[in-house]
User: Fold Glutamate 5-kinase from Nanchangia anserum.
Amino acid sequence: MVNEAADTRPSGPGDLAGLRRLVIKLGSSSLTRDDGGLDLNRLDIVAAEVARLASRGVEVVIVSSGAIAAGLAPLGLSERPRVIAQAQAAAALGQGLLLAHWRSAFQSHYRHVAQVLLTVSDVTRRSSYLNVRQALHELLEAGIIPIVNENDTVATDEIRFGDNDRLAAMVAQAVHADLLVLLTDVDALYTAPPSNPSASRITRVDDIAALPQVEIGGAGSRVGTGGMETKLAAARIAVACGIPVHLAAADELHRVLTSGTCGTWFTPSPVRRPSRLAWVAHAAGVAGRVTIDRGALRALRRHGSSLLAAGVTAIDGAFRAGEVVGLWCDGAEVGRGIVAFDSEVASSIVGLRMSQMSSHVDTPRPLVHRDDLVLFRDGRDPDTTVGA
Ligand SMILES: Nc1ncnc2c1ncn2[C@@H]1O[C@H](COP(=O)(O)OP(=O)(O)O)[C@@H](O)[C@H]1O
Ligand SMILES: N[C@@H](CCC(=O)OP(=O)(O)O)C(=O)O
Assistant:
């Protein structure tokens, strides 16, 4: 088991001598050839680099897109389908092909791979998040390379990542990675989509919250999703968790792992947020809304109090105890927390003091405990989130 106490994170690009655990994400655009099929040569090159790291004792998780792209040709499709059922069929077919190729790419290096398919709720619901984390740790300890992708066939439109960038950031956070490498079809973050002649490369971002005006475009290829926007979202999540991010072109993986003189480096925030609070802050699926009054907000902000039902004015949405809810005050989302009661029970105790709750609940307790709470200092940007 890796010693979590030692700081093994690189201090800058290329400083990987002490690296213990790494997440590498490959986008569809870098795993597919121009004619749409999977680029097996690329998989082989990545497998060779990863096997080299693994032989040094570095634990690596690969987040691999490409299932839908791999399923297009066998289904007789020439481009990514818009109809969700077709995309799901392509993913179901393509995921098998994708994993078979990863397996054979690693076979020559005597490494096993394991398929891990995740949905949004697997990383946002605390119980399944912990299971995922344990399974990944178990695989890494056994020297196996987990190949992670979104479970596209079961994910529905409203509750899917859609891109694998944010999924990769959540995985990096779950396994306490030292570094997240985002590999794509563009060599860096630019000040504007690279098709714009005035766009210039950004080699380093030390404070993502103060990123200079960057014009973000959509995906550059026929197969990619999300473009730079989801990569920046992923970088925000990772750096807030204290994990540096190196964004680079897929064919520069060797340089990322050696000199580091390529791509865009995102410096992590100095404070490594406890993973549980990061999970609450960045949970993609917020199950409901709890509106609180100003007095309650003041108590949370100034005194680090738990959220009591007495300070709640409304409950919206249907949620279960243990899910993440947004906390709202005066029309703005002021924080998030793990709620202690199902929505029906929560609705029945709105405005009640602890002493008045016993006829509604077995054990009167705060609606959101302070240990399960994050507050947004300024607007909704999780960069400015502080633990309560
Ligand atoms: N400001 C920007 N800097 C760099 N690339 C950008 C920018 N805005 C948009 N892009 C586009 O984002 C694309 C990468 O995203 P995407 O196609 O989703 O890749 P992937 O499949 O690797 O996730 C690039 O090809 C590029 O055209
Ligand atoms: N899960 C999907 C990936 C979705 C997607 O296109 O992601 P990406 O190319 O990383 O933006 C697949 O395997 O096809």
Observations:
- DSSP finds twelve helices and 16 strands in the chain.
